């Protein structure tokens, strides 16, 4: 269950191998504030995990050298949770099972390989939109800033969290993954932040949103074209039309034209050219951006058409980009036995396996 009260005891805690309950496979920091200054809200926090190293074992926690020396050389893995921009029961802790799976697989790799695979892992909380009819945690305080967010607050928080990891943990390169609306947010993070009307705000001027874009995005059971779904839900999903409309209005307001302008699969003028990489990123091998779209064929809430439409959009838009290096490589994984909408993160096995595959360059 989400307790969205901030935990009082910060700091690195050892993570034990679930198979023997005694081997330390990494360290976890729960709910670290990511907002500069003192105004961080309970949901402006992130969870971090660092893979184990001999130095961290003897020091008792990740050393400054692990974090800032070696740490800056390998990519980070960042996860954005789902929950239709509003569900307080789904938060950063929904990555616990997957993070544990990844740390445990990494612990089996030789140290040199592990160091190159991933520097650190993070799972981001962000402010949520109102959910007055939530069965157990209704948002009935109209002044709770954690539960009264509206677009672009969600994406602004995600960008702030990425900037925090760059500024304080030396993050340079990262793979950005998301589930459901987290997948929407992951692709929004590849676009120009000027789209969200953030330019000119005090936070913008202070450089909060000025962060390098990911080289790869991985979307699980993602929402990519909400206006399309609501106008014409695929067969078998018609019963969710009003539920979708409710959460879309809660997050983006009442106007259909606004929904089209925020969803990665429905933005009329293609956004692929906005996905810039830094000089440093371009200098490395594998210049192409990559999007891996994973969809369970057993998902009762999100139809596979969302993923198919997103893949077609990216392929079409990539063709319009002349520069070979600026095209997007698209991989679609249709999971026959992928379970229902939330199963993939609840179990964590397959989610972790796919993300490690992307980090290792096997996917
Ligand atoms: N109906 C959906 C359709 C698509 C994607 C998510 C949902 C959700 O219901 C998410 C969340 N558990 C919620 O209660 O809002």
From TrEMBL:
Q: Name one Pfam family in it.
A: BD-FAE
- Tell me which residues this entry annotates as catalytic: 180 (nucleophile), 299, 341
Every BD-FAE-like domain range? 72-264
Q: In which pathway does it act?
A: Amino-acid degradation; L-tryptophan degradation via kynurenine pathway; L-kynurenine from L-tryptophan: step 2/2
The UniProt keywords, alphabetically, are: Hydrolase, Tryptophan catabolism
| Known EC number | 3.5.1.9
Q: Which InterPro entries match?
A: AB_hydrolase_fold, BD-FAE-like_dom, GDXG_lipolytic_enzyme, KFase_ver/fungi-typ
Spell out the family assignment given in the record's similarity comment: Belongs to the kynurenine formamidase family.
Role according to the record: Catalyzes the hydrolysis of N-formyl-L-kynurenine to L-kynurenine, the second step in the kynurenine pathway of tryptophan degradation. Kynurenine may be further oxidized to nicotinic acid, NAD(H) and NADP(H). Required for elimination of toxic metabolites.
On assembly, the entry states: Homodimer.
Domain characteristics, as noted in the entry: The main chain amide nitrogen atoms of the second glycine and its adjacent residue in the HGGXW motif define the oxyanion hole, and stabilize the oxyanion that forms during the nucleophilic attack by the catalytic serine during substrate cleavage.
Protein name as it appears in the record: Kynurenine formamidase
